[in-house]
Amino acid sequence: MLVGPTASGKTRLGVELAERLNGEIISADSQQVYRGLDLGTAKPSFEERHRVPHHLVDVADLDAGESLSAGAFVRLADEAIADVRRRGRLPLIVGGTGLWIRSLLRGIVEAPPVDPELRRRLEERAAREGREALHAELCRVDPDTAAQTSPRNLVHVLRALELYRLTGQRPSELKARHAFAELRYDAKVLGLAPPREELYRRIDERVAQMFVQGLVDEVRAFVSRGLRGAAQTKALGYPQALAVADGRTSVAEAVRLTARDTRHYAKRQLTWFRADPLVEWLAWPVVAEELADRLSRMGFRGETG
After folding, report:
1. Which of 27, 45, 166, 305 is the most buried (most CB within 10 A)?
2. CA distance 219 to 277
3. Measured distance CA(195)–CA(264) in Å, rounded
4. Half-sphere exposure of residue 258: CA atoms within 13 angstroms, side-chain side
5. Residue 224 CA from chain centroid, whole number
6. How far apart are CA 304 and CA 293, in angstroms?
7. How many C-alpha atoms does 291 have within 13 Å on its Cβ side?
């Protein structure tokens, strides 16, 4: 497994490792699963997918209203891992969606289902007082979870408050107990984290390039298909690009805001992965050939070319 924050170089390193280790990549990115979410999710390029087979990219259709949960991801990833191993290749999980990776390794956290009445009351409060008010409450009842959850991610804030009210326990406590669950796979988990200045430079460069390559046009295509309100199109970069498409802001301002929000997201990803004792953080810069040699000597290598 290769994990880390957005723009840390996971995709490129994953492709290089897969080529050297006779592997195939299984994506653990909760946005790259959707067809059409391309530029904003920094999907592997056509050339990268041609070099190495990729699984769980472009497997869900927004037009059909499909949505992939952590549980659905685990089922699909289990199938992909079994298929890759059956053909004598090495499964290499690459992604930055911490919940999906944890669920694949340790199973789904046992938690009560959504309470429709409680969810309705929380949603009404968010509409009345603003999502920041609910995030402030989460800060009071569970600072650890609040630190890893953006106030803009209303779905996650609502679920965290819901869990607290239904169980009387902090979601961070539920997660901590889950961290001791028996592992579902014998996996080597490698973390990729450039120095902060380098990571922020990469984020700024990526965001600027997304808009140059046509992110606003990608958003216009969603709007033309009636998907303006789809939850997935609220991922990083898309609301800002929509504001440009609507004439509500400039490209320069959209780039600035997207880069800022992406830096905040990267910090939350790092907080999540650094709390996992399974992650071995790689020294920077990473030399793919040297890392592949080390992994090969440990037995992490496919049987066929």
Report:
1. 27
2. 39
3. 15
4. 33
5. 26
6. 16
7. 23
Question: 3-state DSSP call for residue 69?
Answer: coil
The pLDDT tens digits for 46-101 are: 999 999 999 999 999 988 888 888 889 999 999 999 999 999 999 999 999 998 99
Nearest by Cα to 55 from 90, 26, 91: 26
Q: What's the token pair of residue 152?
A: 């803009």
State the CB neighbour count (10 A cutoff) for residue 69. 13
Domains of the chain by residue range: 2-107+181-297, 116-178
* Phi-psi sector, 226: left (phi>0), alpha (psi -120 to 50), beta: left
Q: Model-level pTM?
A: 0.81
φ and ψ of 139, to 5 deg: -60, -35
- Can you read off the two tokens belonging to residue 253? 């301002």
Give tens-digit pLDDT for 170-216.
888 877 666 556 899 999 999 999 999 999 999 999 999 999 999 99
Question: What's the topology of domain 116-178?
Answer: Histone, subunit A (1.10.20)
Question: Which residue type, as a one-letter code, is found at position 74?
Answer: V
The CATH code that applies to domain 2-107+181-297 is: 3.40.50.300
DSSP 148-216: TS-TT-HHHHHHHHHHHHHHSS-HHHHHHHHTTSPPSS---EEE----HHHHHHHHHHHHHHHHHHTHH
65 three-state secondary structure: coil
Please give the structure tokens belonging to residue 131. 């999502």
